[in-house]
Amino acid sequence: MTPDRDAAPDAGDDRPRSPVRVGILDDHAVIVDGIAFWIGENAPDVQVALRATRWLDLIRDPEFPVDIVLMDLQLADSVSIESRIRACRAAGCEVVVVTALDDAESRERSLAAGAVAFVPKTLPVSEVIDVVRRVARGERVPKRRSAAQVAAAAAASAAADESDIDDAHLSAAERRAVSLYVQGLSTSEVARRMDVGYETAKTYLRRARDKYAKVGRPAGRRSELIRRAAEDGMLE
Question: Are residues 73 and 34 part of one domain?
């Protein structure tokens, strides 16, 4: 849990008086440094106590534990997100997962393991830090819908006014590849999830796009493919 602070906030000021000590864990140093720089320039009520690009560097840092860890979902190591979250919680840190893979399954895994929030990297840093402040105040952070869920809802609304959508007749493998890809996975990640080679996964996606194009349903861009997937019930 976030440590109690001795001083009460001034009237009209709902921020903690003592700076919130945060750690940033992301395997891309440019992201770590970018968030830290923004905090230093714009958030005097938040202190970056440690930065790390590897899990072991985070937990071995003498500043650990901190109040809140901003943690990337996917790191280039073998430690699962659940294990990382639970270890931080056991040490007394709250965890906010900040991720490029904004899908329902990853969100549920993170929250079930004890993360207090799950936010996409598409958010401005200012909004991520607002989440940090809410967590520090002990407030409940509302769940956000994933990008896939937002796209599905938009597509479902648009589809309500449409009829006679032509079936692209995708194979089971093509549907699986599209379903994974529109969740935000790269082609390489799709290949790993499907246990196939990179070129095979790339072929599945190309064939799916070609089939959609042949029935007059453009799918050349990721946004278009998300819409096609939503129309065909491939998104949760």
Answer: yes
Q: For the chain, how many structural domains are there in total?
A: 2
Contacts of 11 (CB under 8 A, 6+ apart): none
Mapped onto helix, strand or coil, the DSSP state of residue 184 is coil
Instruction: Give the 3-state secondary structure of residue 123.
Output: coil
Query: Which backbone phi and psi does 51 adopt, to 5 degrees?
Result: -130, 145
Q: Are 190 and 201 in contact (CB under 8 A)?
A: yes
Helix H or strand E encompassing 99: strand 94-99
pLDDT of residue 8: 42
What pTM was computed for the model?
A: 0.56
pLDDT at 134: 92
> Could you tell me the maximum CA-CA distance found in the chain, to the nearest angstrom?
66
Residues 212 and 166 both lie in one domain: yes
Whether a cis peptide bond, with omega within 30° of 0, leads into 65 is yes
Q: How many residues does the chain have?
A: 236
Of 164-173, 187-196, 214-223, give the lowest mean pLDDT range.
Answer: 164-173
